[in-house]
Automatic annotation (TrEMBL):
Organism encoding this protein: Halobellus limi
Main location (coarse class): membrane
Pfam families referenced in this protein's UniProt entry, alphabetically: ABC_tran, oligo_HPY
Name by which UniProt lists this protein: ABC transporter ATP-binding protein
GO molecular function, one term: ATP binding
Cellular compartments annotated: Cell membrane
């Protein structure tokens, strides 16, 4: 499924060649990226045959930056992001090749128990539906306290205080009063805030957020994006954000990786991708953004932030 129409060097009309999206790491990050994904290949083996969902993707995330994985439905964004901590169910999935290094650790060679330590700890996932992180049976407080204690030596009382701090950090009104609530007693936006608090419980260096605002009302979307951006800037947590929404990318991304059919066809700084997209697929994605005027703004700006 790999993309083959990308010229290797230069173009006939003399315009800059598209960046070799799967080439060597960006030089400014080459020294010590927090996350380095190289030539990742993830397949699914089903009765219908083998799908190369991610077919040789490479990208990096530096400490404290937001990188967006963008692309149309089915381009491999979720599979790429979930392959990083091997959340992919194997079988039918198979991580068939490549390396994933996180702060010097080769994640793909870790044992299941070692990986469990990293997952929910130094790397936390936030999903489109908060139900992916929250158990409907238990109270918010119970779940948060468990998450805090799993990754620390805190006593129950200390963990409870930390849970209240985390709820406060994610902007939950009356945080102490929320501990006894069950998830269904909260709005969708509040549930996603709790899911982000759960992610913070393990004191992560990287949050992988897969369409975290897609299921929310549009006014709440910007608030949750603003929350993630505040966590990045104030706590120095890097964010790998999966989204199909280029309006979201314009709001929060430092750098962008554009996926198509399991292949990274373009990557670069957000300003470069928006102002000078070099791959035709990226240009088509941009052209489909309502209100996009090619000056770096969208209709979305000015909404509740
Ligand atoms: N469990 C699975 N079994 C078989 N194929 C799968 C499975 N999960 C994903 N795929 C396939 O992998 C490819 C990439 O899917 P993925 O969910 O990563 O796309 P995406 O870019 O995240 O799309 P969306 O925005 O719709 O979630 C698709 O062709 C999809 O059908």
């Amino acid at each position: 499924m790999g993309d083959t129409d990308e010229p290797g060097a230069g173009t006939p009309d003399g315009s800059p060649a598209p960046e070799d999206a799967n080439g060597p790491p960006d030089s400014e990050n080459a020294s010590e990226p927090l996350l380095s994904v190289e030539n990742l290949q993830t397949r699914f083996h089903t009765d219908a045959g083998t799908t190369r969902a991610v077919d040789g993707v490479s990208f990096e995330v530096a400490r404290g930056e937001t990188v967006c994985l963008v692309g149309e439905s089915g381009s491999g964004k979720t599979v790429a992001s979930e392959s990083i901590t091997r959340l992919i169910r194997e079988p039918p999935g198979e991580i068939a090749g490549g390396t994933v290094r996180f702060d010097g650790i080769d994640l793909l060679s870790l044992s299941t128990s070692e990986l469990r330590e990293v997952r929910g700890g130094r790397i936390a996932h936030v999903f489109q539906h908060p139900q992916g992180s929250l158990n409907p049976v238990y109270t918010v407080g119970w779940q948060l306290i468990e998450a805090v204690r799993l990754h620390s030596d805190l006593t129950k009382a200390e963990a409870r205080a930390r849970a209240v701090d985390l709820l406060d950090r994610v902007g939950m009104p009356n945080p102490a009063g929320r501990l006894d609530d069950h998830p269904h007693e909260l709005s969708g936006g509040q549930q996603q805030r709790v899911a982000i608090a759960m992610a913070l419980a393990g004191d992560p260096d990287l949050i992988i957020a897969d369409e975290p605002t897609t299921a929310l009302d549009v006014t709440i979307q910007s608030q949750v994006l603003g929350l993630l951006d505040g966590i990045r800037s104030e706590l120095g947590v890097a964010v790998l954000l999966v989204t199909h929404d280029l309006g979201v990318v314009a709001e929060v991304a430092d750098r962008v990786v554009v996926l198509r059919d399991g292949d990274a066809v373009e990557r670069g700084d957000v300003s470069k991708i928006f102002e000078r997209p070099s791959h035709p697929y990226t240009r088509r994605l941009l052209d489909s953004v309502p209100g996009w005027d090619r000056t770096g703004t969208t209709d979305r700006e000015g909404e509740d932030g």
